[in-house]
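Page 42, continued from yesterday. The earlier attempt failed because a stray header line got pasted into the input along with the sequence. Redoing it now with the clean sequence only.
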Amino acid sequence: MGRPIPFQLDAGPRDRRDRPLRDLRISVLDRCNFRCPYCMPEEDYPRDHRFLGKAERLRFEEITRLAGLFAGLGVRKLRLTGGEPLLRRDLPALVGMLSAIPGIEDVALTTNGSLLAARVDALREAGLGRITLSLDTIDPDTFRTMSGGQGDLAVVLDAIGAAERAGYTQMKINCVVMRGVNDHQVPALVEHFRGSGHVLRFIEYMDVGTCNGWKLDRVVPSAELRRRIAERWPLVALPAHYSGEVASRYRFADGGGEIGFISSVSEPFCGDCSRARLSADGRLYTCLFGRSGHDLRGALRAGADDGELAGLIRAVWQARGDRYSELRGIETVRSRERIEMYEIGG
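This time it went through. C-alpha cells are written below.
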C-alpha cells in the first residue's frame, strides 16, 4: 500500500462532485522533440511551428509559488510534464525548488526518455522521487514511426539503464496502444519488462485534443488486452494503492512483477479524479479533455497576493464538474474543441 497521507481527508476544496484536490500536473513547456501521432503529429506541428516564447512560459519561481499555494489547498503530489520537460535544461533546479515545498510528498516526472540519461543523476540529487517513461513499443522500426521519425529506441533503453543505476529501480513504463499500429507488439513489450522491477502500464488510445485523428475503432479496450496477456502470463488483480489511482493493477501469477491498465475510454474513472493541470503559460485546467483553462499567470504577474491567488484556485476547483470520459458515449466526440495533450501533459 502507498504511504499514509498525513492530513485530514476533508482538508482543502472539493468540487461539485465532492472530489478533493490532491494532485497537480505541471507542464513546464509546450515543446517536444518527438512527433507522436496520438499527441503532436508532424503534419500539424512541423519543426518551424511557433510554440510559447520564453516570456510566455511560467518562470520556475512562478511555478514554485503556485505549487506552494496548491499544496496549501491539499495537493500532495506534483508531476512535471510537457511537451518533453527535459527540453528545459535546468529542470533539476525546479525539482529542487518543488521538493522543498512544505506538504509536498512526491515530485515525479513524465518523459520520453530521449534526454534522460545525461540528467538523471542531477534529478535524483535534486529530489525527484519517481519517473514515468513513455515507450509504445520495443520494436525499433515501430518506435521510430510512433515517435514521428524522431526517436531512437536504443537511446531510450540506455536511459532506462542510466535511471536504474541512479536508483530508480521501479519506474512506470507507459504504452499507448493503437489497434493495427502497435497492439500486436504488446507481448514483446511485456516479455521485455517482466521481472525488471518496472511497472508496465497500457493506456487506451484517447481522444485528447483535436488533431490526432482519433477513431474509436483504433482503441484496444483494456479488457481485451488483459485477456490477450493473461492467455500467456496469468494475472492476479491487485487493490488500488489509493483512492483516485488511474491504473487498475495486476501482478503476474508466477511472480514476474506488476502491470497496469489505464482505461479512460472503456472504463472511465472520472468519479474520483483528483488531478488539476497547470499549463506552461500558467492556465489551470481541471480536466485532461478541457476546452479552456483559467488564467493564473495574468493574476500572478498583475501583483495578486497569495490569498487572492489561492482564492482563485479554490473557486475554480469548487466550480469543477468535469466528467468528459463518462459522457464520451453521449456527446459527439468531434463536436467540441479541446486543449491539446502536449500543452498540459497526459
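Notes: The first helix runs from residue 60 to 72.
Reminder to self: strip header lines before submitting.
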